[in-house]
Specification:
- By secondary structure, the chain is α/β, with parallel strands linked by helices.
- It has two domains: 254 residues, Rossmann fold, CATH 3.40.50.880; 34 residues, no CATH class.
- Helix content is 31%, strand content 24%.
- Strands 1, 2, 3, 4, 5, 6, 7, 8, 9, 10, 11 and 12 form a twelve-stranded mixed beta sheet that branches.
- α1 packs across α3.
- The chain is globular and about 50 Å long.
- The chain starts with a strand and ends in a 12-residue tail after the last helix.
- The mean pLDDT is 92.
- Transfers an acetyl group from acetyl-CoA to L-homoserine, forming acetyl-L-homoserine.
- Belongs to the MetA family.
- Its EC number is 2.3.1.31.
Length: 307
């Protein structure tokens, strides 16, 4: 199995090694006669180290060598991640705007109740979206990142929900012949944690888009364009087992009103522990995206074949 290439001092590196996941440092990677996939990861989450580890864990399941460049916004600086971490491991758009990448990942962000144009880094984000059209083979957008991209590229606005979509929901595989759905069961589970959503009716109005997975409760989960260059994930198949639990007890301890996450705790009882039902789903989706939408489609010489 080929590894994700990570800096030795990145916190996620030690975590993944302790989980017996194969990672490689830059020095060893440079000695091999293989070109790794170059993935740009725009991390908009406040808890950047946690999100890094979740995404890198799934990328590490691939058989393809991957080099990840971490990107932060310049218009807004995270207050929940040490500055030393950002200075050491993150770059800005100005520093990479003249480069090309095989893939882009855009995380979610806790700004879903705001209008898109009111988000502090919206203008910078749209510049990155435009950049990706010309310089990235395939982009994957997660949760709010997916909502933002659907809005910017296709004019599909998010809609407020009556109550928070919070828990583990059943989804139907709508297109078993799609490369992105290869290996997924007819019915599978994935986490959601959001206050807004996208309507499948709005998505159907756009001829270039196809919904690949749908939940009666949570709505569309996986959406892709016909060119395989954009993938939208409205939920969080990358979540750790404890992620929803930490969010639930954080709000409980803060005195906030929050329902128990749906279909998450054993017998819906927080005292009985967590029932993990989505781990294979996340691995399969990311593996399929890397293999079929990125590796098999991207040019070998990125600079020469820059779009």
């Amino acid at each position: 199995m080929c590894p994700v290439i990570l800096p030795k001092d990145l916190p996620a590196t030690a975590t993944l090694i302790n989980e017996n996941i194969f990672v490689m440092n830059h020095e060893r990677a440079q000695s091999q006669q293989i070109r790794p996939l170059e993935i740009l990861f725009l991390n908009l989450m406040p808890t950047k180290i946690v999100t890094e580890t979740q995404i890198l864990r799934l990328l590490s399941n691939s058989l393809i060598q991957i080099n990840v460049t971490f990107l932060q916004t310049s218009d807004y600086t995270s207050k929940h991640t040490p500055k030393s971490h950002l200075d050491t491991f993150y770059t800005t758009f100005e520093e990479i705007k003249d480069k090309s990448f095989d893939a882009l990942i855009v995380s979610g962000a806790p700004v879903e109740n705001m209008e898109f144009e009111d988000v502090q880094y919206w203008n910078e984000l749209t510049r990155i979206f435009d950049y990706a059209e010309a310089n990235v083979q395939s982009s994957l957008f997660i949760c709010w990142g997916a909502q933002a991209a659907l809005y910017y590229y296709y004019g599909i606005d998010k809609k407020p929900l009556e109550k928070k979509m919070f828990g583990i929901f059943e989804h139907e595989n709508l297109d078993k012949n799609s490369p992105l759905m290869r290996g997924l069961d007819d019915v599978f589970y994935a986490p959601h944690s959001r206050h807004t959503g996208n309507s499948i009716e709005d998505i159907k109005e756009v001829r270039d888009l196809e919904t690949l997975a749908y939940s009666k409760e949570a709505g569309p989960l996986l959406i892709t364009d016909k060119s395989k260059r954009k993938v939208f994930i409205t939920g969080h198949p990358e979540y750790d087992a404890e992620t929803l639990s930490l969010e639930y007890f954080r709000d409980i301890n803060a005195g906030l009103k929050i329902e128990t996450p749906f279909n998450y705790f054993v017998d819906d009882d927080p005292e009985k522990g967590i029932k993990v039902t989505w781990r294979s789903t996340g691995s399969m989706i990311y593996n399929n995206w890397i293999n079929y939408y990125v590796y098999q489609e991207t040019p070998y010489n990125l600079k020469r074949d820059k779009k």
